[in-house]
Amino acid sequence: MKILTSYRVESEGVPAEIAILEKDGEYVGVYELMHTKIKAATSVALSYLKEKIIDGTNLKISEILDPRESERVKGRIIGKAHEIIRNELSGISGDEENILVGRLAQEMLGLGEIELLLADEQLEEVVINSAAEPVWVYHRKFGWLKTNIRIPSEEQVHNFASIIGRRVGRQITSLEPLMDAHLPGGNRVNATLYPISTKGNGITIRKFAKDPWTIVSMIANGTLNRDAAALFWLALQYEMSMLVGGGTASGKTSFLNAVLVFTPPNQRLISIEDTREIQLPDFLHWTPMVTRQPNPEGKGGIEMLDLVVNSLRMRPDRIVVGEIRRQREAEVLFEAMHTGHSVYSTIHADDAAQVRNRLITPPIGLPENQLEALQLVVVQYRQRRIGVRRTFEIAEVVPTKDGVSMNLVYKWDPRSDVLVMTGQYARLAEELIRHTGLTVKEIQDDLREKEMIIDSLLKSKLTKVDEVGKVVAWYYRNSGEVATAARENKLIELLS
Question: Which CATH number characterizes residue 129's domain?
């Protein structure tokens, strides 16, 4: 046996040690989670304490199911748990009390031991295939690993899926055996029931960072460079529409989330998703909306198209759609672009040329001339060999007499691991000159100023979404003051 790495995680005050191992006889690595196991007698006591807590907190069903009340409900339950444990288990130490309260919170409000996996920032996926096999995880560095955690029964897996669904107004039953949902922290969940998943009931949790990625953090980890980041800022400031392409888990949504922080706070932004993933600063004028599955009678379903059409009646300045999948959605989105709205979305495609081909061929099949309303295409890429995500291509959509072509401006060089400028942006400059009156020199000066501010954010380690968002918002109010603060590396003082 070989220990590859070890570290510590904590959830609800319950600590655990993680060891990544290579074991004899195992073809994949093993993710071993070690934490304080509860004895049988203590387990009985926990069941008793749960009943006392439920009786003592007097929670309404509506409070438990309302995601907006989750933090308040959690606080009440944890407070009552501390009170009851002190009364019922006198002599217990403070550390033991905290661990017991944490375990109660995990079991009453969460997914038991799975909560410790969700607390591990190194994991991207947590997967339950069935009760017959261990839980699997996808580690940022080591890829797929088998854990030492097992769910005791298929009923428990189904119960976990039902709990997750109820919190966000979704359900999973034998009649509706597929479910997309999300956890309160934003992690995306897909659940399937037997016999659709033939091994047993399954749950896949796609983890998202507690602090969303920002352009600054993406520059720090090498996803893109300052030049490209400044170009995106300029494009967002002047309402250029953008599509983000890429394969599964290439970072499309994270990238989209990062550039949307450049939205001016005096413009209304509406986001439409199947499950909530976009996380933007609270001070933005932002209305997030999600789709809804129909009930068992087939009524009450709200599809993405319904929300896209409805959003056009809400006076949006910008519309964000989680993913373009079907022709009608794409038609409405491109119509929105043609009527003056800025639109941002994602699409599965491996390069800029493939984005164009996917849009003009079935199942989407738009007339090619409609693509003229789109200005930018960005493609994200995941290098699975070394486990990194990179901005692969940045291209302008340029109208031609036969349709549109892709003007490749940046392309990632895998040998040097650098995003290289391969061409000049033409359409962006032309539209800015035509619509704003800026000269080419003024556009270049604007880009250099934005680069300098981004560089100062990086040097100041201001990488959180609210920090970056506040600097951007203040820039739209007083660009000179922000530029001066950035030049003198005083952005932290500016925020305070």
Answer: 3.30.450.380
